[in-house]
Amino acid sequence: MTRQQPRSTRATATRRPAVKNTAHAVAAGSQPKQVPTPDQRHQQIAETAFLIAEQRGFQGDMALDDWLQAEATVDAGIGTQH
After folding, report:
1. Terminal alpha carbon distance of the chain
2. Is 12 a residue whose pLDDT tops 80?
3. Measuring CA to CA, how many Å separate 70 from each of 43, 45, 46, 76?
4. How many Cα atoms are found within 13 Å in the side-chain-facing hemisphere of 51?
5. What pTM did the predictor assign?
């Protein structure tokens, strides 16, 4: 009787290719990000700017700075820049 070598799990494991585009992502089960409408984006920025101002106690006249920071934060979260 011949002794069999144990199978390596490394050799039998299959690797999935990286998903390169949205069509493959949907086919693989993940869904692409939903891009908000301009009105939704504006609302998200306004809410984020309010929270930024609230965190600093609404001190000073920094509305523009708050808005720009909020805009960058929202755009980074949705993967777009305007």
Report:
1. 72
2. no
3. 11, 5, 8, 10
4. 11
5. 0.56
Q: What is the torsional sign of CA 23, 26, 31, 36?
A: positive
DSSP letter, residue 56: T
What's the CA gap between 41 and 76, in Å, rounded? 12
pLDDT in tens, 29-52: 566 668 899 999 999 999 999 999
- Sequence spans of domains, the chain: 35-82
Mean pLDDT of the region 57-72: 96
Q: Which residue has the tokens 């965190």?
A: 55
How far, in Å, CA of 73 to CA of 25, rounded? 25
Cα angle 53-55-60, degrees, rounded to a multiple of 5: 45
Contacts of 62 (CB under 8 A, 6+ apart): 53, 56
Calculate the average pLDDT of the chain. Answer: 77
